[in-house]
Amino acid sequence: MRTRPLTRSAAALTLLSTMAGCALGTGSGTQLTVLANVTDKVAMTSVIKAFHAEHPDINVKVTYADTNTLQTDLPRDLKANKGPDVFTVWPGSGNAASAVVLSNQHLLMNLGLHRFAWNLPDDVASVVGRLGSVEIVPASYSAIGAIYAEQTLKDIGGTVPTTYTQVLALCEKAKEHGKVLFALGNKTPWVTQLVSYALAAGTVYAQQPDFATNMDQRRTSFAQSGWKDALSKYLQMNDRGCFGTAPLATTYQDSLDQVASGQAVGIVQVASALAELKAAAPRIDLTLHALPASDDPQQTRMPAAVSAAYGVNARTPHPKQAKAFADFLASAKGQNLYNSKGTTLPAIPNATFKTDSAVAEVARRQKNGTTVPFMDQTWPNSEVQQTHFQQIRALFAGKTTVDGALKAMDRSFRDGPLD
């Protein structure tokens, strides 16, 4: 399979993207600055091109950064009045660059009077600001699951597993053919959470759909819930060779390379990774499926929620132009462009969108109610997610136990600062 090599280092990619940027429109007019996640580069590029065509007097300069850089540097730059006009914001309250946290610091422009804010689905409206306000534009509805390269799966004589036992058997089959089932880039901190989220969807939320509420009311805890089963299975998959020999030495970009080149059958990732894989290997056929966490397919769930979203700087010197960009992104045209290129679904549904076959299961589960929230979107502070990252790395390094990891997450949930 011929592939286009991907950048070998996420940090290097961030540096290159941030320094060079990408500008559309170099003539006279207002220059609008946009900062987006590097995982959304394909989707955002198509939106900016179409926006500039409709607004030739607005020149858009976009830069890209990885998740860790955004969550660290963006809040600091906004506070110092050095932030971009429009930027990536995480829905909910789970990290330092999330809607509720930035809103609490008065860093986001309120968008509640914009037309798109009037017709948001309930699950979308619940994560776009604090106390019922609308302070970000939800761009995509994404999912976390197992992405399979169809030809590689066929080459090892495998089929998409529907039970956890079948997952382990497929790991063995992949090894027999000199491959790994799932590439795993746990050297990149944010990647560490994805397998545990995919498993916890079935081990926790299938039995306790109101788990987040029970956590808020202290009726349960990570340590007392199906999270223990999820992390135990995460480690079991590693012990069985499902992820290869060195997940802690593998970056996000390395893991994509492994799938694009056929070294790995698939990867557990967010749906937006589909676009990057297709860019690297244009002829590759990919599908995203839920990762089974039990041997009862009826209990399988898929994490799915608003993924990419964008806020407007409350102190932007270009409020009119920034709000025009927000409105375009929220329009049916903007939503369709963003998601047709990124193989996700519009966060603001419309009847004209055509679902990519790669995410057909996401659309089906969205309709039949077998999705669960992205866990961190409901956590009370950003420390819980950071603790999760750290504890997964410690588990893989053999420096803690499942019980120890969950106790640390419980401490962060209970005692962490309210952002």
Structural notes for this entry:
The chain is α/β, with parallel strands linked by helices. The protein has 17 helices and 13 strands. Strands 6, 7, 8, 9, 10, 12 and 13 form a seven-stranded mixed beta sheet that branches. Strands 1-3-2-4-11-5 form a six-stranded mixed beta sheet. α2 links the parallel β2 and β3.
Biggest sheet record: 7 strands, mixed
The total strand number stands at: 13
Helix content: 40-55%
Strand content: 5-15%
Could you tell me the radius of gyration in angstroms? 20 Å
Counting H and I runs of at least 4 residues, what is the number of helices? 17
Order of helices and strands: HEEHEHEHHEEHHEHHHHEHEEEHHEHEHH
How confident overall, as mean pLDDT? 91
Q: What form results from the Cα inertia axes?
A: globular
Structural class: alpha/beta
Q: Indicate the low-confidence ranges by residue numbers.
A: 1-20
Question: Span from first to last CA?
Answer: 47 Å
